[in-house]
Design brief:
72% helix; 0% strand; mainly alpha; single chain
């Protein structure tokens, strides 16, 4: 039963993305719906027994908050390191020398 519901939601999400809906909210809502359905069907709890808030609705939002707080810091560090690398490559002239040497055409950059 769970696999059928997951397949239906997955095809629904794919259809909405194909119809040019914004993928971030569509994927987010698909994940939330699957999380609630899994909790209602008794497959698992959203949070562990010690971390639960007592309500499935609040547990889902607590799970999202905990996931975002752990991943946002890592994402910020990745963005800063890529930005620093790009700035360094621009400063030493590496970003200008590749198209000049014929390695990359300016149209592909």
């Amino acid at each position: 039963m769970g696999i059928v519901i997951s397949a239906i939601i997955t095809f629904w999400v794919g259809y909405l993305i194909y119809k040019k809906y914004k993928p971030q909210p569509v994927l987010f809502m698909g994940g939330i719906i699957m999380m609630y359905i899994a909790a209602m069907l008794g497959y698992s709890q959203i949070l562990g027994a010690k971390a639960t808030t007592g309500s499935v609705i609040f547990d889902a939002f607590e799970f999202i908050r905990a996931t975002f707080s752990s991943n946002v810091g890592k994402l910020g560090l990745n963005i800063m390191s890529v930005g620093a690398f790009a700035k360094y490559m621009d400063k030493i002239g590496a970003s200008r020398s590749l198209p000049d040497r014929g390695i990359l055409k300016p149209s592909t950059v």
